[in-house]
Fold this sequence. Notes:
By secondary structure, this protein is of the alpha+beta class. It has helices at about 30-50, 60-70, 100-105, 110, 125-140, and strands at about 75-85, 90-95, 140-150, 155-165, 170-180, 180-185.
Amino acid sequence: MIKSDDNLFKTNNQGSILYEESGIEIINFGNKFIKQHTQNLLDSFAATYGRPMFEMSEGLTPEEKAEFVFFAPQAILSHDIRDDGQGVRENIYNYANRAALLIFERTYQEQTALASFKSAPSSFQDERNNLLGECLAMGKVIFDAERVSAKGKKILIQKGLFFNISDTRGIYRGQAVLLKKTTSKNF
């Protein structure tokens, strides 16, 4: 039997996922992955940029930190390397907060099933690949870029803060981005 804290999303008595009005799933902030990943994001950002990602009250529980980051006004996304189901290793999104889900017009399940290259227009793939490699080598990159939402809107990113994620033991866990300023428009 799965404990309620093991579920990524909040569910009703029948086990169906609950959604907010926007169509985004309601996250279970007690979920082990969500709590640990949020802490890894916060710690890695602070170690990389020399300041906290957000000003938060002291003494927040892991669940409160996870909720704070999920509802932060700036978009946060991360990816790790996984098998795409067809034997190809690819960067697949593993986290997106509410702001990112609204910007990219996807649910959490849709976003975290997506290979990250699919968020960049085909004409920007070389630039994207260079950005990933530079971040991997240097630990961080501040960048401007163009991405595309699920509904085809062009997303212009200005001064995105890209960084590598490590866990508490220093093991590499992927890459993340804090999008401080984005604008979107139809093609």
